[in-house]
Write a structure and sequence with these properties.
171 residues; binds glutathione; alpha+beta; flat; 6 helices; Glutaredoxin; 4 strands; 4-stranded mixed beta sheet
Length: 171
């Protein structure tokens, strides 16, 4: 019998929600465990040593095996549960494009989405008297630039980025 999958996450986190949604869509059984990243629980040495030295969520624990990074979690589960191949790509070109958009997202759209973090969460975590206007400005610029690319080129006349069905890159 295989171990229950434990999914350590925080619901306000976009990468956590992405892998979470992938598990739900594919009927993968798991137990969700909230890690309150607004406290220092994920910064503590015991957490870093046991789960993830970066202190970040999401994290998947499968028996003795621990994996972090949301896309890596999804691709691991995709293999393990033999999910339909539209999620990870049917052929080398589709697989390549899914990885292409995931890499692109990590350095642009995701950082742009950080504008949301700096507007809503950073004051809660670091204090309402702090000035995050420079981070917000930078995030917004990246966000608008990334969304513009998506609308102008990649989603201009199609519903999905990589093929005619959902892939993990869509999240
Ligand atoms: N590239 C990572 C990003 C993970 C990430 O940024 N996690 C944030 C929440 S959105 C986190 O755990 N932050 C807590 C911290 O850094 O202390 C992934 O896709 O899993």
């Amino acid at each position: 019998m295989s171990a229950t999958l434990r999914y350590l996450h925080h619901p306000a986190s976009q990468p956590c929600r992405a892998a979470h949604q992938f598990m739900l869509e594919n009927d993968i059984p798991f137990e969700a465990e909230l890690v309150d990243i607004t406290t220092d629980i994920n910064e503590r040495p015991e957490f870093r040593e046991k789960y993830n030295p970066t202190g970040q969520v999401p994290i998947l624990v499968d028996g003795d095996f621990v994996i972090w990074e949301s896309a890596a979690i999804a691709f691991y589960l995709n293999e393990k549960f033999q999910c339909p191949d539209h999620w990870s790509g049917r052929d080398p070109q589709q697989k390549g494009h899914i990885q292409q958009f995931l890499q692109w997202y990590a350095y642009t759209l995701r950082l742009g989405g950080g504008a949301f973090h700096w507007t809503i969460f950073a004051p809660m975590i670091y204090g309402y008297d702090k000035d995050f206007s420079a981070e917000i400005k930078k995030g917004r610029y990246l966000l608008y630039e990334s969304l513009d690319l998506l609308e102008t080129y990649w989603l201009k006349d199609r519903e999905y980025l990589c093929g005619d069905e959902m892939s993990y890159a869509e999240y």
